[in-house]
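Sample pair:
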Amino acid sequence: MTKISLGRRAALGLAATSMLPRLGHTQGTWPDRPITFVVSFPPGGSTDVSARLVAPGLGELLGKPIVIENRGGAGGNIAMGYVARATPDGYTFLVASSVFVVNASLYRSAPYDPFRDFVTVGTLSASPNVVCVRTDSPIKSLPELIALAKADPERFNYASPGIGTTPHLAGEVLKLRTGMPMTHVPFQGGGPAVQAILANTVEVIVAAQGTVATQLQSGQLRVLAQTGATRSPDMPDAPTLEELGIKDAVSETFNAVYAPAATPRPIVARMAAAILDVLKSPELQVKFRAAGVPVAPEGADGLQARVAREVPMWRNVIQQSKIVAE
């Protein structure tokens, strides 16, 4: 369990106490029972891991346990639709990946609106997407892959964790920016996509860093490029797309916490402050990084700015690539 220093606990307690007159009697006692984090994917993925890593420290800091409830399905829509309609009393929060900024444009009948139905609480983690091949592949660089694909347009396909995931969209951005022909092969999650490239079913995979962390460490996969704005410290030899001359192609897979829109703002503020406080723990940061999902403590305002930026960005990519999910 992540330990919270007495100084930080006292500081947060004073901040919370200052909110009490605005909270009212019922809200002022928050939380007086367990809080549920509804995770948009099944156990084991980066979203679930991020929620479970932060939950013990939050429970200790807030004085009530954080219960993880996985509601996977429909590309994250089941959980997002559920929390959008949950009672906004501060006891139900959503933990979602980047699908939060994608699905409203991807699905014709998405069960939520990212701006109307939710308020941002805080980002937990973020990692670049990576373009990888097997280490026994003769392809050593992304420019080489692009040249080979253009010379033989029917040759290459690439695996992703599914339609509309940020790795899929990152692959489509790469195709749009370079004119590289490559067929998308979606899988039901990162695990099956990784197994496909290891089995030589596909020659290329685009995935979040955390999805392929084990295979990179074991030497089964080679990174050709990463989609972050700067090089990841865990992949210092892998160039960014910008370094390779591919502009306007930065993307990350991020995991964040949201609350139903009508949740009292003092409660949202207290949860947001608690998340930022817990993410300061060096021990917890090591655990996040080991899982391939480095912490990204943006806070509520930073997450709100990210959502405002990425919803239209991905809508444009979806429209240009003519991607539709039912």
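Strands lie at 35-39, 66-70, 92-96, 118-134, 157-160, 183-186, 204-208, 221-226, 252-260.
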